Amino acid sequence: PWKKLDKLMARTYPHESGHELKVSAVLVDSGYLPDEVYAYTKPLERRGFAASKGAAGQGAPVIKARTESKESGARLLTLGVDTIKGETYDFLLLEEEGPGYCHFPPDRDANYYEGLTAEEPMAKSVKGFPTIVWEKPEHKRNEPLDCRVGNFVMIRILQQNFGMNLRSLRKLMEQTSPQVEMSESQQPDKPAEQPAPAAKPRK
Prior knowledge:
Blueprint: H1 2-10, E1 13-14, E2 20-21, E3 26-29, H2 34-41, E4 49-55, E5 63-68, E6 75-80, H3 81-92, H4 110-116, E7 120-126, E8 129-135, H5 143-162, H6 166-175
Parallel strand pairs: 3-4, 4-6
Antiparallel strand pairs: 1-2, 5-6, 7-8
């Protein structure tokens, strides 16, 4: 599986502007087989790789802790996943484009959106204090939500550590977008497929 991941991380990904995007940072969830994850990420840390694990808790910072694994010394980020999930669900409710509005590729199907909204915030009492606990029904898959949480953290790291500005980056990409003119014979016969509507969490 690591070789497959290497190939995915080494390739470029087309952006709607015409640019080809490279992978800038990678988080690998260490919740399963942590020793194997640490062995994979440690040699790649200079390329922006890191191991991660989620920690529940209402109001926790996005990056709760930056530590190293005791055995290998691999970089380990502990994520405030409940905070990120709350912001993600708020973003999904936005109906107008702007900060936080979610854009999805047209190939996302119903299973993807079900996984993205698989968990539900439930009000509970923990040690006598009211709090929000995120719960997932046993029969549901939540990998899309996990990936969204990880990507949220990666953007935050690139902003804080490398000064990435999303608005400036988008403007630059638009200004330098490759201009490709299609002849009449190259024009599509059918309208382009429209993006799937943003999924909304159940209340």
